[in-house]
Amino acid sequence: MNKIVLVLLALLLSGCSPKQPGVKPPFLIYPYEFYERFNLRTIISSYSEALKYYCASYPKDFFTRDQLTMPDTDTLVLEDESKKLVFELYELDRVIVTEETKDGSYYAKYLYIIYYNEENNDFRTDRFFIPKHEECKTYRRKDANQSAP
């Protein structure tokens, strides 16, 4: 009897979770959405340390629009003088994120299940979340024609 109660309680609690993997209609993702509304605080990347210090959360905070290309209908490439970040829509609710530095010191490629977060009006994974520091600083991205500090 106790096992049945525990199973029912577990099912009830898991059904109440606000994190539901998978993008549900009508929220279709187009590659440009990754630039505007994909929360980098929910993935493993070289941006993790910067995200702990700065208030920035989205690729648009780190890259300008002229650093964005869309080679096809499922891919977004963001590239500056030192890094390249690629989002490939694998399925409706899955994305492959590839990140590499131009000097070859960092390379990562991960497949994530993504979902739409209504509260923040963004797309994210349910892997983990890097919270914003209370006294986070505004990130000042470099313009494409500006040299690194």
TL;DR?
The chain has about 150 residues and is α+β, with helices and mostly antiparallel strands. It has one domain.
Structure description:
With 149 residues, the protein is α+β, with helices and mostly antiparallel strands. It has one domain (18-125). It is 21% helix and 28% strand. It is built from four helices and six strands; from the N terminus they run ααααββββββ. The chain has helices spanning 2-15, 31-37, 48-53, 59-62, and strands spanning 68-72, 75-79, 83-91, 94-101, 107-117, 122-125. The chain has a six-stranded antiparallel beta sheet, with helices on one face. A hairpin with a 4-residue loop joins strand 5 and strand 6. The longest helix is centred in the first third of the chain and has 14 residues, at 2-15.
Q: Using DSSP, what is the number of strands? A: 6
Rounded to the nearest angstrom, the distance between the terminal CA atoms is 65 Å
- Global morphology: globular
Annotation field: number of helices: 4
Rg over alpha carbons: 18 Å
Indicate the mean pLDDT: 82
Please, how many domains? 1
The residue fraction in helices comes out at: 10-25%
Strand content: 25-35%
Largest sheet: 6 strands, antiparallel
Helix-strand makeup class: alpha+beta
Order of helices and strands: HHHHEEEEEE
Poorly predicted tracts of residues:
5-19, 144-149
**Arrangement of strands in the largest sheet:** 1-2-3-4-5-6
List keywords for this structure.
single chain, 149 residues
Topology:
Elements: H1 2-15, H2 31-37, H3 48-53, H4 59-62, E1 68-72, E2 75-79, E3 83-91, E4 94-101, E5 107-117, E6 122-125
Antiparallel strand pairs: 1-2, 2-3, 3-4, 4-5, 5-6
